[in-house]
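Page 47, continued from p. 46.
Same chain as before, 220 aa.
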Amino acid sequence: MSDEDDLDDYEPEPEPDEEDLEKEDDEKETEEWEDYRKEGEEFSEEWMPIPLTENMMKEGLSLLCKTGNGLAHAYVKLELKDRDLTDINLLRSYIHLRYVDISENHLTDLSPLNFLTHLLWLKADSNQLRTARLNELPYLQIASFAYNQITDTEGISHPRLGSLDLKGNHIHMVTGLDPQKLSSLHTLELRGNQLESTLGLNLPKLKNLFLETNDLDPKT
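Result:
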């Protein structure tokens, strides 16, 4: 069985009711947002360069799965949370990865992820990202870019993406979210941004939209 067959058959576990979760976590999210803002004011964006290394990869890799024709195996899950990383270029060589957590680092560039065409799940929260732009990733279903410095919603065009988290960024206007390219998107998290209107949110399949803590005019 090929990687593509495995990915086509992949069905994520049912998610708990979003409304209940949001009610329970509302206070926690507010506190996290305030902490993030304070940290941004206290610390400089200049960090000592720390590139991803092979040793870090060995420590973070897990979940051995079949690849290709089923005769070979590779690790498909990677956890690199809170490693102070500034560079993940090494990921270009790990093309079989499906689950990647690179949150709580100092990353400004996610372009190496463009080589991970089997990626299903991505968490890149709490970095120094100014954009969530990536090449189209055909199997990506869940992506989180919360608590970064992202200013727009351009360059997000993954056909199987179901859940997108952009809370706690600096987004003033939603642009570039093409309903034809985001035909599976059902959950969009935009709390804690600087949105002034809901223009650009023309996503017919959307079921869950979170917009609290923005600068929205009730008339828009």
